[in-house]
Structure formats: C-alpha cells, structure tokens
Amino acid sequence: MKLGPTANGLKGTIQIPADKSISHRSIMFGALAEGTTTIRNFLRGEDCFSTLNAFRALGVPIEDDGETITVTGVGFRGLKAASGAIDVGNSGTTIRLMMGILAGQPFTTTLFGDDSLAKRPMNRVMLPLREMGARLTGSSGSEFPPITVSGSDQLKPIHYQLPVASAQVKSAVIFAALQAQGTSTIIEKESTRNHTEEMIKQFGGEISCAKDGKTITVTGPQTFKAQEVTVPGDISSAAFFLVAAAITADSQITLTNVGINPSRTGILEVMTAMGAKLSMLSVDQQNQSADLEIMTSQLQATTISGAIIPRLIDELPIIALLATQATGQTIIKDAEELKVKETNRIDATAEELKKMGADITPTEDGLIINGPTPLQGAAVDSRGDHRIGMMLAIAALIAKGETQLQREEAVAVSYPEFFADLHTLSIKGGK
Ligand code: SPQ
Q1: CA nearest to 327, candidates 370, 263, 374
Q2: Which of 55, 184, 340, 366 could form a cystine bridge with 335, CB 3.0-4.6 A?
C-alpha cells in the first residue's frame, strides 16, 4: 500500500473501535455464565472472532446479528469437547486464556494458530496449570503451539508468583483457579491490566486484590450470572491517532468513548510528560471511558521504565515513533516482554523506523531514540504485526515522499477500520 504525508494535518472526530482485551473476555465470561449475555460494541477484529469461534467449537451457542453478540452461557460444566483442533489465528490472548479455562475441563483440546503464534512462548502458562493438575503439551514436546490441553475437573488451588508481568498468564491462572477446589493466591511481578478481575465482579463472582495491587486471592469453584456488556473503545487503538495528531502540523482531533481503565492509561501519562496537548473530556467514571482531544505539540524526550511498562506495553512501538519527533534522548527500558509479541517488537520497531531515517537503537530490554529527526518515505513492512503496521502508517504521515507499506492487512487483527479512520481524519476532517 502506498502512503504519503498529510497535506493539512489531521482534523475531526472519530469513534475508536472497541477494546480487544475486554471483547475477548466478554465472550469467555458470557460462555461460562448461566443465562444469556449480550455484548454491544464488540470488537469486529480477527482476534476477537478467534475467541468467538473457539467457544462455538466448544458447544456454546453464540449469535451475531451484526450489531449485538448474544452468548447463551453454558457454565463451567457445560463446555463440550470440540470435534477437531481449534484455530485461534494470531491471538495470544485467545490461546493463553483458553488454556486456563480448558485446564479445568474433563476433556482434551488442541489449540493452534498462525506462524507468528507458533513462535510465542507458552511455558509461562503451561507450568502453573500443570502444577494445578492439568496436562499440557506443546508441539513435539516444546513450549510452542499447537498446544494440547487435557484438563481435570479436580484442579488443585495454587500459590503462584508470576515470573513475568503478564495479564495473559495472570488471567489463565485465575480461570483455572475459578474451577479449582479451594483458595489460590497469585502474586504479580508488576500490576497488569485487570479486565479479568473486573469482569469476574461484573458477572457476580468474587476475587480480591490486596492494597499493594499485586496479590490476588480467588476461591473456586465459582459460578457466574449472565450480563449486558457494552465494550468501551480501545486505548491501544486510540494511541495511534493520539501520536499522529501530536506529531503532524495543524492537527486537532477528538477520539470518542476511549477506555480509561487506569491499568491501561500509561500512554496518557507519558504523552503528557512529553508535552503533548492532550485533554480528557466527558469522563464517564461508571464505564471507565472518556473523549480524548489532542493537537499538534512540541515534544520533549523522556525515560519510560519500571511499573508503568505493563500499563503501556502495546503502545511502545507508537511511543517510539513519537520519540523520534521529541527533543532529546528517549530511553525505554524494562520492556523485554516486547520481544515475545506478534513479532520481536524491539527489533521490528527499530529496524523499520531506521529505514525511514530515525535515530533509534535497540537494547536488550528496550529502545534508545534521539530526536527530533525528519523521516523519509521508504519501503517498510508490518512483518504481519498489526501494531507495527499501524505505527508505520502513522510514520508515513510525517515522512517526506512516498512510503510503501507491505503486509498492511495485518491491521485487521485489532483495528479493521484503521485506514478508513486515517482517511477520514486526514482528508475529510472528521465524521
Ligand atoms: O493477544 P495478543 O496477540 O497477545 O495481543 C497483544 C497486542 O498487541 O494486541 C500483544 F501482542 O496484547 C496483549 C498484551 O500485550 C493483550 C493482553 C490481554 O488482553 O490480556 C495482555 C498483554 O499481553 P501479556 O503477554 O503482557 O499478558
């Protein structure tokens, strides 16, 4: 796909698509609840359809009228063995959270995905689930998908200290603990997104989180009651346009209904610290959402490390682009988890942005970026990673000359309307 610089900046208002993490979990909790759950504003991205189809394969009736998803819950004891292996595509969230759910089921399931998923580490989930009594094996004895889960309806509770800061590992262990006999304690390395915990409460279950924010206690077995869920917009998708408006001249945009769960808002803190003219309007505390307004900004470099990293982990590629336009040296560290995402996002970000002239150096656990640096159009590649693809499309807006983006279709994993929204903001001045 050919992309060029914006002529007159970005203007207008768009509604950001639904949160991917919450959309996955709303199908899961709907399936595991008793009664009929309705999901409005479900993310119509490929990853979330992987979860939806996986639960259909496990015997859960799910209707989609194009607007609302209706899940007829079967409860933890109502899932049925699938007739074949389940394809979860590109979705790490689907495979890891489902491993936790399937660990407590008295049948065997095989989960597989695309070439990218086949390289993502699964020991982080398999080890605690084995300790709880489930049998899990990876491809040819490895830790990589396809993963075969032979569950047990006699799971033991666990006391588990997470070796990595990962909401997916935490969630998988929580899903297994909800089916175990007794009380499990899960201790996080750093606090990560808490959508699983929030949804347990929303669906009538119980889970407690100690004041330190890192120690979770959950007692099984539990049952859930069906709910009406409305998914807020995804701050990880909003991030691309927040950065786009901040770094392009003559821009002022508003992104409506963006989720502002505090476990996800690290990007807003970093952008504000860097000098971005960013304001939060119409805050809806009940639904944890707000409209975000942003305009062209003078940016200063910063250092990003420690506890904030899990609160902006998926935004680091687009933050790296932001840093190429900030004055001074930006240092990103403690982000080694980026190496095991859909691509090695440390290498992918550095190598692709270097092709456009950025001064960016990969390190063992992050990136060092010097700015401001003018970018030039180049032939760049999403490498099949949706977040790398969207970051490069935003880079093209400020690059001199034409950018040729390869494998742009990867954006459909989390943001199918991305190019349409980009067009709306660049050409038409908003919907
Ligand atoms: O689902 P997937 O492919 O793992 O998605 C990513 C993404 O960029 O969309 C990561 F590649 O987001 C993860 C996120 O990085 C979604 C997620 C969740 O919904 O629980 C948690 C994070 O992953 P992790 O490994 O830190 O738990």
Answers
A1: 370
A2: 366
Ligand 1 pocket test, candidate residues 25, 175, 314, most atoms within 8 A of CB: 314
Domain residue limits, the chain:
2-18+232-428, 20-230
Two tokens, residue 253: 């945009």
CA distances from 109 to 13, 58, 127, 185, 343 (A): 44, 9, 17, 26, 26
Specify the CATH architecture of the domain 20-230.
Answer: Alpha-beta prism (3.65)
* Residues contacting ligand 1 via CB (< 6 Å): 20-21, 47, 91-93, 166-168, 171, 193, 313-314, 337, 341-342, 387, 414
Q: Which of 47, 234, 291, 314 is catalytic?
A: 314
Identify the CATH class of 2-18+232-428.
Answer: alpha beta
Give the number of other Cβ atoms within 10 Å of residue 106's Cβ.
12
Going by C-beta distance under 8 Å and a sequence separation of 6 or more, which residues neighbour residue 329?
Answer: 301, 368, 369, 370
Helix residue ranges, H only, 381-423: 386-398, 418-423
Kindly tell me the sign of the dihedral angle through the C-alpha atoms of 53, 28, 236, 126: negative
pLDDT in tens, 280-337: 999 999 999 999 999 999 999 999 999 999 999 999 999 999 999 999 999 999 999 9
The string of DSSP codes covering 192-242 is ---HHHHHHHHTT---EE-TTS-EEEEEE---EE--EEEPPBPHHHHHHHH
* Amino acid letter, 324: T
The single-letter DSSP state of residue 399 is E
| Distance (Å, whole) CA 427 – CA 431 | 11
Query: Residue 19: which of 181, 140, 193 has the closest Cα?
Result: 193
CB 350 within 8 A of CB 311: no
What is the CA(338)–ligand 1 centre distance, in A?
10
Residue nearest to atom 24 of ligand 1 (CA): 166
Which whole-number Å values give the CA distances from 60 to 37, 38, 111, 178, 265, in the listed order? 12, 14, 17, 19, 34
pLDDT digits (tens, 9 = 90+) for 365-383: 999 999 999 999 999 999 9
Q: What percent of the chain has pLDDT over 90?
A: 97
The residue with tokens 């990867």 is 410
Per-residue CA distances from 88 to 95, 117, 339, 344, 413 (Å): 6, 9, 21, 20, 12
